[in-house]
Amino acid sequence: MPRRNRPDRGGRPDLGASTGWARSESATDGEWLVRTVPGAQATKDYRCPGCDHEIRPGTPHLVVWPADDTGGIADRRHWHRACWDARSRRRPGRW
């Protein structure tokens, strides 16, 4: 009988639970952990704190949280990449 190729049905790691999936960034606004979310993995609506617009399902974006992660998952925010890159040019008080 020929071999059947089946997708792996094992559990996938929680991409948000581990810093191994994130890169570290240092900026004047602090130390951050940043994870890229490909469009294929973006399945929910989010609100970008940089522009206050929705990030629709299927839209590639970033998940960002403070490197000290004292607040846990509650401190994670979903950003458009351009908004994250331009945050130093925004007026203060937005996140």
Description of the molecule:
By secondary structure, the chain is mostly beta strands. The protein contains one helix and six strands; from the N terminus they run ββββββα. The protein has one helix at residues 81-85; strands at 23-27, 30-37, 46-47, 54-55, 61-66, 77-79. A four-stranded antiparallel sheet has the order 1-2-5-6. Strands 3-4 form a two-stranded antiparallel ribbon. A hairpin with a 6-residue loop joins strand 3 and strand 4. It is globular. 13% of the residues are buried.
Keywords:
globular, 4-stranded antiparallel beta sheet, 95 residues, mainly beta, single chain
Percentage of β-strand residues: 25-35%
C-alpha termini separation: 59 Å
**Main sheet overview:** 4 strands, antiparallel
**Could you tell me the radius of gyration in angstroms?**
16 Å
Give the topology string: H per helix, E per strand: EEEEEEH
User: Could you tell me the number of beta strands?
Assistant: 6
Q: Runs with pLDDT <50, length 5+?
A: 8-20
The largest beta-sheet arranges its strands as 1-2-5-6
Q: Which class best fits the helix and strand makeup?
A: mainly beta
Query: Which outline best applies?
Result: globular
Protein name: ATP/GTP-binding protein
Organism: Amycolatopsis orientalis
